[in-house]
User: Which sequence fits this backbone?
């Protein structure tokens, strides 16, 4: 029975159909105090319930996951489709303080670090070290340099970086993007026994040789 019947003349309170009919409006406007029956599909909270916690929609830590793209639009940014909800929340929370440095070399550097490594805080050095250099002999030109640890992630990082640089750089400037990646990786790291001796793994200079030696002799 809907509690809205209390606000109607007594003659209507005796109508069982009206008692059920008003439940739909009560569910939409104020929400029902009792939990939904197990047989019912998941129903959004009532409008009054939403308004009562409206401040949470503006907090990236508390806002519903489906509301994050809208919140990102409020701070004039966009979210990557391949980011999970936790990463999106951290990114939105950290992006606003950087807008004070928008259009500057330092601001672009930190934005790149944040986009390419959103799990880290922007005020730290981060795992991903982005360097921006400006050659003296090339006005309005700058180089962006960083290193990725996983070569398989190279194309995605490059796409993110170029999209952000094109959007954030001053219109009269142009740039070069240089991404370094490891070309050699030792996957079987050395392991030591109880006495400190090497018992397994790859040992550079012992059972593995890197580079090419040259032997010079004279007759």
Assistant:
């Amino acid at each position: 029975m809907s509690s809205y019947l209390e606000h109607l003349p007594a003659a209507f309170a005796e109508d069982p159909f009206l008692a059920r009919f008003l439940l739909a409006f009560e569910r939409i406007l104020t929400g029902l105090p009792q939990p939904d029956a197990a047989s019912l599909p998941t129903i959004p909270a009532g409008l009054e319930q939403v308004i009562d916690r409206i401040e949470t929609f503006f907090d990236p830590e508390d806002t519903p996951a489906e509301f994050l793209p809208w919140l990102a639009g409020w701070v004039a940014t966009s979210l990557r489709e391949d980011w999970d909800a936790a990463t999106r929340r951290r990114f939105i929370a950290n992006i606003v303080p950087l807008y004070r440095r928008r259009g500057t070399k330092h601001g672009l550097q930190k934005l790149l670090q944040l986009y390419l490594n959103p799990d880290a805080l922007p005020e730290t050095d981060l795992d991903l070290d982005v360097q921006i250099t400006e050659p003296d002999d090339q006005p309005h030109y700058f180089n962006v340099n960083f290193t990725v640890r996983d070569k398989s992630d190279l194309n995605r990082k490059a796409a993110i970086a170029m999209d952000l640089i094109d959007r954030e750089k001053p219109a009269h400037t142009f740039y070069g993007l240089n991404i370094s990646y490891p070309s050699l990786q030792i996957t079987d790291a050395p392991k030591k026994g109880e006495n400190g001796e090497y018992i397994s793994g790859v040992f550079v200079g012992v059972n593995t040789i890197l580079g090419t030696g040259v032997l010079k002799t004279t007759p």
